[in-house]
Amino acid sequence: MKNYLYNISGGNPRSLLPSVIAAILDGIAKIVPAALLVDIFNTIYKSFADPGKGLDINRMWIVCCILFAWLLVEYAAYASLYDKTYRAAYSLAASGRLKLAEHIRHLSLGFFGKRDPGDLTNLILSDYGQVEHTISHNLSQLISAIVLPVLAFGGLLLVDWRMAVAMFVAVPLGVALLWLTDSIQARMSENHVRAKNEAASRLQEYLSGIREIKAHNMGGKRFERLRRSFDELRSASIRLEGIMGPMIMGAMLLARSGMTWMILVGSYLLAGGELSLKNASIVLLDEATASLDPENEAAVQQAINELVADKTVILIAHRLKTIQNADQILVLDQGQLVEQGTHAHLLDHSGIYARLWQLQQDAEGWQVKVNGS
User: Fold this and answer.
1) How many domains in the chain?
2) Are residues 167 and 150 located together in one domain of the fold?
3) Same domain, 154 and 202
4) Digits of tens for pLDDT over the chain (373 positions)?
5) Host domain of residue 289
């Protein structure tokens, strides 16, 4: 991390400090609305859990006012981040180009004879353009990717340490995967840069001699070096994306799998009574398993069934398999109640519910076929 900041800042990482601080503040500002929404849902839940007290309207209004007022804070935080990151990006790129140009100005003619002019052109223009993009677009994302998970881990520790560990247990595996492939990435990136410089040199060579080419009606094999350099650049780019892309995606999937682990552990703890909800007579579940794959959906559904035993459950769902055992199913269309009954009754009725059920059953049997197989 230290070397990364040192390299993109041209040896002056302190110049990135305002951008880093602004990125941290922007990340914290984005967390607050989520916490306020949790408080709103918790207030609504309490009104169902304890109907005698009713809905705390005053608290709802206060939280909603804070939420709307916080939009100004978010805007100010993002505006500060935008200003500081782009100012740092363009300032560092401009000063770096000037220093490099001044350094090149004092070099001997022998140096230029040994180096392709396209290499220097690519360094001054393309490489520093990449520095601008990295600082203005990637730096804030990098800081948020570090700070926000740390804050989330701390928040989950306050709820239950096992849920916190479950959510982040896959992160070391993802980091280890990236670390193990670092040497491969460095070697392939070096080959890609070399191919890009070669293509830039050949293009500049072609443009510089275009008058001679036109004057002598040259073509065909005379363009072979240019075509070959672009073919090599294309191959290097495909290799870099084709190999490193799946590795990076694999690391990301390992890290994101922590969310599934957290849901499973949380459901297990709820079902086992180690995390307790109030003894509510009515439980409202809105798309409780909508974002889960079938295997995890079955595990979470079983935990929910144990949790809501002997309670009245209101379940909102689009996956009809999750509600087929309900005592009463209400079908809404355009906000209107159009059907009501048990699963068997609604199938016999051959209405909207029956059509949706058949479509979902057919979709489960879909398979991807490859031509020729």
Assistant:
1) 3
2) no
3) no
4) 677 677 777 777 888 888 888 988 988 888 888 888 888 888 887 787 677 777 888 998 999 999 999 999 999 999 999 899 888 888 888 888 888 888 888 888 777 777 666 667 766 777 777 788 888 888 888 887 788 788 878 877 887 788 778 777 777 777 777 777 777 777 787 888 788 878 877 777 777 777 766 666 665 555 777 888 888 888 888 887 777 777 777 767 766 666 666 666 666 665 555 555 555 567 777 766 666 666 666 766 776 677 666 777 787 887 787 788 888 899 988 888 899 999 899 999 888 999 888 888 877 665 545 454 4
5) 281-364
104 and 1 in a common domain? yes
Q: Name the packing angle between helices 294-307 and 224-272 (round to 10°).
A: 20
Identify whether residues 207 and 351 lie together within a single domain.
Answer: no
Same domain? 23 vs 137: yes
Asked whether residue 232 falls in the same domain as residue 359, the answer is: no
How far, in Å, CA of 291 to CA of 228, rounded?
A: 48
Q: Where are the beta strands (DSSP E) in the chain?
A: 282-286, 312-316, 329-333, 336-341
Scored b (16 or more CB within 10 A) or e, 188-197 reads beeebbebbb
Q: b/e per residue, 132-166, with b = 16+ CB within 10 A?
A: bebbbeebbeebbeebeeeebeeebeeebebbbbb
Q: Residues 248, 186: one domain?
A: yes
Domain closes at, from 158, 185, 216 = 158
Tokens 């990076």 belong to 248
Does residue 164 contact residue 153 with C-beta atoms inside 8 Å? yes
The burial class, CB within 10 Å (0-12 / 13-18 / 19+), for 81 is buried
Please indicate, yes or no, if residue 372 is contained in any of the structural domains: no
Q: Is 370 inside a domain boundary?
A: no
Tell me the three state secondary structure of residue 317: coil
Closest CA to 45 of 334, 211, 307, 285: 285
In a domain? residue 369: no
Token representation of residue 294 = 């079938």
